UniProtKB/TrEMBL annotation:
InterPro entries: Dgk1-like. The chain crosses the membrane at residues 26-46, 52-73, 85-104. One of its GO terms (molecular function) is ATP-dependent diacylglycerol kinase activity. Keywords: Membrane, Transmembrane, Transmembrane helix. The keyword Membrane applies. It comes from the Archaea. It comes from Thermoproteota archaeon. This is Phosphatidate cytidylyltransferase. The keyword Membrane applies.
Length: 149
């Protein structure tokens, strides 16, 4: 409901929030909307252990990737695709891997979590990574679990 008010500019909410919003959030849905959708779908489609790992890794990894990308980012894969740096994706991938290790100890899972996070982070446009990362991690971890059990 708050999102509808923000998009439709009721109560001048957009004017108050504009300084802290990304450009794509001013005209569309905020990152939190896509995170909630991604978390909901991840919980719906994957078992509890994998969903917990994927959502936690998404939260931690994406936040760290954004911070490091802003502070140290210098190499961008494609400015046309998105404004995400390679440095942010690597450090975010490491943080996501640490988060996954809290739930899953399988070395192959940790390696695939790192690769999947980096790929989803770099290839996702704007705030959509909040939807794609937990789903990509959940799918990858589920496929690996099916292969090794």
């Amino acid at each position: 409901m708050i999102e509808a008010f923000r998009v439709r500019e009721f109560f001048d909410l957009l004017k108050r929030l504009k300084p802290i919003l990304r450009e794509e959030e001013v005209v569309g849905f905020g990152a939190y909307y896509f995170f909630l959708l991604g978390a909901f779908l991840t919980i719906l489609f994957f078992d509890a252990e994998i969903a917990s790992a994927a959502i936690t890794a998404s939260l931690v990894g994406d936040a760290i990737a954004a911070i490091i990308g802003k502070l140290l980012g210098g190499f961008f894969i494609s400015k046309k695709l998105n404004s995400k740096s390679f440095e942010g994706a690597i450090v975010g991938g490491l943080a996501a891997t640490l988060a996954v290790s809290l739930f899953i100890r399988e070395p192959a899972s940790l390696f695939l979590a790192f690769v999947t996070f980096m790929f989803a982070e770099i290839m996702s446009r704007g705030v959509y990574d909040n939807l794609t990362i937990p789903l990509a991690l959940g799918l990858t971890l589920t496929m690996l679990k099916k292969l090794i059990t």
